[in-house]
Design goal:
The structure is a single chain. Helices cover 21% and strands 35% of the residues. It folds into two domains: 1-148, Thiol Ester Dehydrase, Chain A (Roll), CATH 3.10.129.10; 151-300, Thiol Ester Dehydrase, Chain A, CATH 3.10.129. It is globular, with a radius of gyration of 20 Å. By secondary structure, it is of the alpha+beta class. Strands 1, 2, 3, 4, 5, 6, 7, 8, 9, 10, 11 and 12 form a twelve-stranded antiparallel beta sheet that branches.
Amino acid sequence: MRHLYECQLRWADLDLLGHVNNVVYVDYLQEARVDMLRTHRPAREDGADATAGLVEGLVVVRHRVTYVEPLTFRFTPVCIECWVTEVRAATFTMAYEVFDETPEGRRVYVRATTVLTPFVFSEERPRRLTAAEREVLAGFREEGDAGERPARTPAREEDLGHFPLQVRFSDVDVYGHVNNVKYFEYLQESRIAVLARLWGAAPGEDSRASLVVAQIDVDYRVPILFRPEPYDVWSWFSHVGRSSSVVESEIRDGDTVLARARVVLVFFDTATGRSVQPSEEVRAPLLAALDGSWTARPTG
C-alpha cells in the first residue's frame, strides 16, 4: 500500500529559474512522511498510541534524491506517494515519488529514498523498532531497491572549498537538533560560495552558466546542534564531465564528520530545458578545481 499526500506549493519555494528549489523537495518529502505516519498509526487496547515514536522520534540516516524534471509554481497541490521498501531491526527505508497525473500519464518530478531510525532523544541514542511499529510499516511494504551508495573520494581541505557554517536558531527542531532538511540548505550555501569563487559570480548572476541539481546523496553521521561558533563545510570537485560535475562535501566539527554529501550538477539551457555543454571559459575553472591547480584571482 502507498500513502498519497497532496502538498501545497508556496511562492517562496522557487529558485532563480522559477523552479521549486532542490532543497524544498526534501521538506515536501518530510511532510508526506509525517502525514503517512500520523494518518495510519493504530491505538493499543489501552488507548495508547502504538506508533507514536515513529512520528515524534525518528532521525534520518540517509537521503537519496533524484531530480527528474523541474516543477514550477501553481495554486494546485502536487502529489506525493510514499511507501516502505525495507524494514530492519533498527532502521526502515521509505521511497517517494513527487508527481502529477496527466492525460498522457504520470509526470514525475522527483524520486527519493530515506533511511530512518527510531531515536531516544532523552538519551541521544537510536533504538530498535517495536513489534507494533514493524507491523504498521509492513502494511506499506513494497519491494524496492534504495540503490548502492555512490563511491566517495577522500576529503580535500582547500581554501576554495571552505565555508563557515553558522546555524540559525530557527534551524533547530524541538529536540535541539538541526532538522534534516536544513542540511540540504547548508550544502547549497557552501556549493554556491565555491562556484562564486571559481567564476567571480554566483550561479544566476553569471548568464553564461545555469546549473540544476540532478541528484543528491546525504549521509547523516552526528547531529548538528545550535551554538554561536560556526561549523566547517569542506567541498571539492570529484568529477567534471562535458555537461555535468560532481561536488562532494563534509560538514565537520573539528575532526568529527557530522554529515557527508555527494551532489551531481548539470549545466542547463533555460530556453530548451535540456542539459548543455558549457563554454571552455566556464568549464576551465572547474577542471582547475578538480586537479588542484586553481588559484584565487588577485584583488585590488
